[in-house]
Amino acid sequence: MSQHDSLHEDASSETAFTKGREYRTRDVDVSALKRAREDGIQLALDGVDHSARPTWKLRETVEFYRDVLGLPLIHTISARGWGHPGHPDFLHFFFDAGKGATIAFFYYIGTDRPERYMPEDNQFYSATHTAWAVPDRESLERWKTTLEARGLAVSAYTRHETLESIYFRDPNGYPLEITLRLRETDVLDAKDAALTLEAAIQLENETRARGERLGDIDTVWRRKAKLVEALIGGA
Which fold has domain 121-184? Predict the structure, then answer.
């Protein structure tokens, strides 16, 4: 039996979905987890395989991604309900997003959209999204002008440090980003990221201990400046 067959057998066993479901519900206590430096194993990712979200607008979703955006529909899984008791039958379908990645949806047959999946106009809702890459400025401009000419509302160009992006929403209200990487990140970016987050973590710990909240980015910048000074002095 090959490794792949063995993995499949484990996943399809009777207890796969009746036992071991704690990964879906148990709180993750980061303080209790082993750090990567302790076992010496370096995990790595190899890009995005797919993004996936539920839809209760089957026809509109297919027409939007296939016919308006022009992304090829390349695969559909149709299945009886599986997993926990009461799991509905479903369709799981995939659109080509380039370089082996796909945009996927679950259509749970006979279900209604819960209130928490209704679109909202706030930063918390928009923060959950996938940014899909284009290779050059001309491609980004083509996406914006073409989608607008097809009648879709598209944001202005938004530049944020190493990226420039446009934003729009699909028929489900899900935010989508098309982005151009302006430059690659390097070791200085990684060091800057670590200092910024260390400053924020320190301040969050301190304010929580006082029963307060971290108030603004200026406070983070000032703490980061002290960390930079200490780094330079130590060097």
Answer: 2,3-Dihydroxybiphenyl 1,2-Dioxygenase; domain 1 (3.10.180)
Query: Residues 171, 64: contact at Cβ < 8 Å?
Result: yes
What's this model's pTM, rounded to 2 decimal places? Answer: 0.85
CATH fit for domain 49-118, picks 3.40.1190.20, 3.10.180.10, 3.40.50.2300, 3.20.20.70: 3.10.180.10
Q: 13-58, pLDDT tens digit by residue?
A: 455 555 667 777 788 999 899 999 999 899 999 999 999 999 999 9
Q: How many CA atoms lie within 13 A of 205 on its CB side?
A: 7
Q: What are phi and psi of 93, to 5 degrees?
A: -125, 150
Per-residue pLDDT, 4: 57
pLDDT bracket for residue 84 (50, 70, 90): confident
- Determine the Cα–Cα distance for residues 35 and 191; give it in Å rounded to an integer: 19
The pairing of strands 130-134 and 175-181 is parallel
